[in-house]
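pls ignore typos typing on phone
iron/sulfur cluster + seq
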Amino acid sequence: MKKFHITTFGCQMNKHDSERMAGLLIERGYAPCGDPTEADVIIFNTCAVRQHAEDRFFGNLNNLKADKKANPDLIIAVGGCVAQAERELILEKCPHVDIVFGTHNMPNLGFMVEAAEQGRRAVCAVADEIEILPTAVPSAREEAHHAWVPIIIGCNNFCSYCIVPHTRGRETSRTQEDIVSEVERLVSEGVIEITLLGQNVNSYGRDIYGGSRFAQLLNRLNNVAGLSRIRFMTSHPKDLTDDIIYAIANGDKICEHVHLPVQAGSDRLLRAMNRKYTKEGYLATISKIYEAIPGVSITTDIMVGFPGETEEDFLHTLDVVEKARFDSAFTFIFSPREGTPAATMANEVPAGIKSERFDRLLALLNGINLENNLALLGQELEVFVESVSKRDDSILTGRTRTNKIVNFEGSADLVHTEAVTRITQAKTWSLRGELLEVAVKS
Ligand code: SAH
Ligand code: SF4
Ligand code: F3S
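k done
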């Protein structure tokens, strides 16, 4: 049996696309393998969001030159966002690549592999717009209990720093019926937790229903029997309307966690980023969320070093962090992406200042994470048990509805069940708890 290996870079959408790629190849009789040196087909699912992600991919790809020389039958395929944005560069610079396929061409991966096997070298398929929704192809899920469910693909926002609208195209929503029936099928296969995916889930439905239907979709999914947790990401602050906040507050299956990327605190920078909200507007949304959803956790993405960022601008970012009390944050240093407006903006921030600001930001975030976690001491929190700890097999790792990790003593047969723990110790990145009761067996 022939084997394939997939290396995935980037966001959850890419992780999910990789599951679809695996599904397509398994359908064609290939078997997944963990070790790329044993694979007949090696696939890279790439990310172009920052230079660093792209460099890591090109590094990995170059390392395969010798393998390809030693085994000319090896098939190397490159998909995802770098393939979409830079097909020429890959074909020119990397003659050992057999297949380049764009984000919209993934459903045809099986045919492309077949063509490469028959020696039709350098198969390249990069379409500009979506033809087949990738959700129409089979998926080989990484986990039995959890599934990623894309609800909207692409992005119309064109934040001035961001490559994603160029690599994923315009917003394309699936119908509510299609999504609900997929979720029902997933539940019948044993899934109890889903994460709804989109670059901006709040816009869900706009392209097909003439207005956002995200709140309605959440309400409908909340009625799916047998499902226990509904997560979603990412929310755009400009579109997080009251009906969505109420849907989260009222839906018993909808987890009390909102990932709401702020990017920066200064209105001047937010305007230059084309984010379409102000610091005050963002903080007002945050207050509404805290008021409406007891115990909610709010996480974010923050970027430092956007062109022209002054110390004063940066202090506004720190101020938002203090006021919003984030439970965690993904932090990034601005990376110019060719073809985006920010890449050619003047007043690049010197590297030393960027990294000094980055460190100050992290120190503040870490302190607040810890304070938030300390406030949970003594509380009884429901966790879904995900795994046995790699370091100590008497310790289980679970996740709260608010997406926090709780480690506690317990036996391995509790994995993939829900349990109630009391929090006994708080750290910056995780909580320690004790098992109180075992809830539903999934
Ligand atoms: N759709 C999501 C985010 C997608 S990209 C949203 O709208 O928030 C994930 C994160 O990468 C972004 O939130 C941003 O913080 C970061 N990012 C995107 N482009 C970047 C760039 N050019 N340089 C540095 N960070 C970037
Ligand atoms: Fe990029 Fe902005 Fe779209 Fe998010 S909303 S994917 S940051 S353009
Ligand atoms: Fe990266 Fe593409 Fe996702 S650029 S963040 S993999 S949409």
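The mean pLDDT is 95. The first strand starts at residue 3 and ends at 8. more later
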